[in-house]
Amino acid sequence: MAPSLEEPTRVIHSWPVEFKSFYPVKQAAASTYEPGRTLVEPHEAYEHDDLRPTFPDFHWGPLTEVPYFDKGLLGHPQFKNLLDGVTDIFDYNPKIGTEIHGIHLARLTDDQKNDLARLIATRGVVFFRDQDDFDIEAQRELGMYFGKLHKHATTSVPRKPGLEDVHVVYTDENSKDQRAMFAPTFLWHSDVTYELQPPSYTSLKLLTGPPRGGGGDTLWASQYAAYDALSPFMQQYLENLSALHSADIQAEGSRALGRPVRRDPIITTHPLIRTNPVTGWKSLFFNPGFVTKIVGIPKVESDAVIRYLNEVIATTQEIHVRYQWRKNDVAFWDNRVCNHSASYGFAPHRRHAVRVASHAERPVFDPAGKSQEEDLNARSGLPQVNKDGSGKSNYND
């Protein structure tokens, strides 16, 4: 959940008249191209009106621990069931992000679902284009296959009743600009990590969004790769520490806006390094959005560690993937091993998406876990990375 989501404030912008016309996808022809401008689709008769956001005033009791079995453990090591018949598959970079064509998420067999979970746990986030038939019920059904669906305590849910386990992302042409309210590092987060069992497999489907070139991209960062970016000394240090993950900031923000808090906020202690049960790889389990303190060390040291990890996540380019959305696209990620961040700058386009997240195991650190980078390098016969930064080099790109 991005910290900046809120019900649109009715502020009418005086956009130029021609800016409100709608161009099809091929608007970038030379005769109509204008740098930095994309024209806005009208939404007078909006087909997803029942999935627009509302904030119902419920009150739920605290979450308790529930059994969890990771379906990725049943997946084929080479994902053969899922990939049989695909028309294209490619990685965005070696660390994170894969796009698959020729798959219909609404029609997967159980064997394919298991392979999907295993692939997501391996690659962090997987993208699927043109999932027109993957409606909200199909999205929830697939999420429930992986685990109990999470119900968010503060953010919006669809207007349609019975969908309290669906989170709505919504900004429209009348929403206020919030870029000045959040530091870019703060927007990086892993969803609801303050829960006892934060989510694993999480899907986000874009219902409506800016056209190509209109902004609204989402970025993901691999926490496997963030762990691997650390020195072995820092890795060992963090493996012995835990962090406090707090729901207070979301609850306080909701109350300040006069919205309900459906479940009392909690603060939960989780290990700073966790081990993924599917891959056996160690990952950083930290995010700027919810981690407030490191346990067992002085505050000045805790603050320094938090600043350092914020920088690793936000500025280590090779651990990032950036996705440019199209209507009916779906991103499916492992919330245990990824941070993600929305991006601003797409006003006045409407951006509307629905998210479903499945509870996972309680975070656990297994000292027998492996480094993703070291494991993959060993399998490929590649040398291990040199992490000694004391030498001299001439940067060249």
Per the principal axes of the C-alpha atoms, what is the gross shape?
globular
Radius of gyration: 21 Å
What is the chain-wise order of helices and strands? EHEEHEHEEEEHHEHEEEEHEEEEH
The profile of the biggest β sheet is:
7 strands, mixed
Nearest-integer average pLDDT: 91
Strand order of the largest sheet: 2-3-4-15-7-17-6
Distance between the termini: 35 Å
Q: Report the total helices.
A: 8
Strand content: 15-25%
Helical percent range?
10-25%
Number of E strands? 17
Could you name the ranges where pLDDT drops below 50 across 5 or more consecutive residues? 3-25
Q: What class would the helix/strand composition place it in? A: alpha+beta
Q: Helix and strand layout, with pairings?
A:
Blueprint: E1 53-54, H1 80-83, E2 88-91, E3 98-101, H2 110-123, E4 125-128, H3 136-146, E5 157-158, E6 167-171, E7 199-208, E8 218-222, H4 223-228, H5 232-238, E9 242-246, H6 248-256, E10 267-271, E11 273-275, E12 282-284, E13 291-294, H7 299-315, E14 320-323, E15 330-334, E16 338-342, E17 351-359, H8 372-380
Parallel strand pairs: 3-4
Antiparallel strand pairs: 1-5, 2-3, 4-15, 6-17, 7-15, 7-17, 8-14, 8-16, 9-10, 9-13, 11-12
